[in-house]
From TrEMBL:
Ranges of residues in domain Conserved virulence factor B-like winged helix: 220-275
PANTHER family: CONSERVED VIRULENCE FACTOR B (PTHR37296)
Cross-referenced Pfam families: S1_2, WHD_CvfB
Segments forming domain Conserved virulence factor B first S1: 4-63
Family: Belongs to the CvfB family.
Organism: Halomarinibacterium sedimenti
Protein name: GntR family transcriptional regulator
Top-level lineage group: Bacteria
Length: 276
């Protein structure tokens, strides 16, 4: 069965004036226009393509890679707004439609939004929605403390950075746990700091607790080497200075320094730390 909004591995059946016709095991066929055909191919070859609807609402194949696939989230730029809704650049020739009813707030041309791609069962069309909360749930949490996860930053508030976890859960990186520049739309690895009784999930960008000592120690070693073997940071250094210069909290910095000192890799001086 041909899967709209997803990558499909299909067989090249024949070549025609419009392009290559591809098919699946159930004898369904779809056109791959000439502009997307590979440089070399033979009838019977397998090819991976993305399927969506063209301007006449017919299934069409492309080798272009969209910025998101079915039932996933992406950070997209609004290209146009008309009387029916907004149109988003999602990496394909035909833009993704987001109707007004699926906009969390009115979209504006040129602005960027977190968008979820779904298949409208009534029209069988691929549609976008910026009402992301209805596609996320913390009812049945599939992660636990210390797990490494994939996150998408949705928006920044005074409280911290709101994130989507593994494409299914909502989480928050508290402002006190942010030691680097992050923005809406950023994708990165993160770690679960705590799953609360009220189903809220705390996230951090570095392994929490004792698991963060070793990575931070290696980071400090790299910084020492890059600085010629000495860094002017110590117990009395202002936490904001350490955060701005190293991207670490003072607590994480002290743990890393303690680990390096214990392993006899550094000397702790009054005015900083020195590589042995």
């Amino acid at each position: 069965m041909l899967q709209l909004g997803e990558f499909n591995t299909l067989t090249i059946l024949r070549e025609t004036d419009p392009g290559l016709f591809l098919g699946d095991e159930e004898e369904n066929e779809v056109l791959l226009p000439h502009r997307y055909k590979p440089e070399t191919y033979e009838i019977g070859d397998k090819i991976e393509v993305f399927l969506y609807l063209d301007n006449e609402e017919r299934p069409i194949a492309t080798t272009d890679e969209p910025y998101l696939t079915l039932n996933t989230f992406g950070y997209l730029r609004c290209s146009d707004v008309n009387d029916y809704g907004a149109f988003m650049d999602w990496g394909l020739v035909k833009q993704l439609f987001v109707p007004f009813k699926e906009q969390a707030r009115p979209m504006k041309t040129g602005n960027w939004y977190i968008v979820y791609l779904y298949l409208d069962e009534k029209t069988n069309r691929l549609v976008g929605s910026s009402k992301t909360n209805k596609y996320l749930s913390n009812d049945n949490i599939t992660i636990e403390k210390f797990d490494e996860v994939d996150i998408l930053v949705t928006h920044i508030t005074e409280q911290g950075a709101n994130v989507i976890i593994n494409g299914i859960h909502k989480g928050l990186i508290f402002v006190g746990d942010i030691f680097e520049d992050i923005r809406s739309g950023d994708r990165m690895k993160a770690y679960i700091k705590k799953v609360r009784d009220d189903k809220k999930i705390d996230v951090v960008l570095q392994p929490p607790g004792y698991r963060s000592i070793e990575p931070n120690a290696n980071y400090i070693l790299d910084e020492l080497k890059a600085a010629g073997g000495f860094l002017p940071f110590h117990d009395k250094t202002d936490p904001e200075t350490i955060k701005n210069e190293l991207g670490l909290s003072k607590k994480s910095f002290k743990k890393a320094v303690g680990s390096l000192y214990k392993d006899k890799q550094i000397i702790i001086k009054e005015d900083g730390i020195e590589l042995i």
